[in-house]
Specification:
The chain is an alpha+beta fold. The protein has 4 helices and 7 strands; from the N terminus they run βααβββαβαββ.
Length: about 150
């Protein structure tokens, strides 16, 4: 398994993966996904195995020393095989190197496997947002405080 940065040729594959991972109304339109990737303060990691993209993660640095996980997508046949963990590790390490204090994300209220995954990584539900997604699904805002290295 190899993690690498995003290349423009990846966009169509990442879009197809996002459409397969999430229901309409939760998945991103191509233009919005491209917009997140191309933001100056964002970083996208792509997980590859044997030259095939098996997952990706988009994170963005926000004001007040905060990182936001925009999306993490893992191809169905690659779930529970550490792809998500590798992607989250990369994003959290990036945030730590940026001296950010916390990482947050949104998870659909009805996505119990995602909640378990994030909670096992130290994320906690802090706020429920009604009708967060365009299909009317509510979401939990989940956050993790990053450990500060002592000087």
């Amino acid at each position: 398994m190899r993690l690498r940065g995003f290349c423009p040729d990846d966009l169509e594959t990442l879009y197809r993966i996002d459409q397969a991972c999430f229901a309409p109304g939760i998945s991103y339109p191509r233009e919005e996904l491209s917009g997140f990737i191309s933001q100056r303060r964002s970083k996208t990691w792509v997980a590859e195995e044997g030259g095939e993209i098996v997952g990706f993660l988009i994170a963005e640095r926000q004001v007040e020393k905060v990182a936001h996980i925009v999306t993490i997508d893992v191809v169905e046949g690659w779930r529970r095989r550490q792809v998500g963990s590798l992607l989250m590790d990369a994003a959290e390490q990036w945030a730590s190197k940026q001296k950010l204090l916390l990482v947050y994300l949104e998870a659909a209220e009805n996505n119990a496997p995602a909640h378990r995954f994030y909670e096992a990584r130290g994320y906690r539900r802090v706020d429920r947002v009604e009708n967060y997604y365009s299909d009317g699904t509510s979401a939990w805002i989940m956050l993790k405080w990053l450990k500060r290295k002592e000087a």
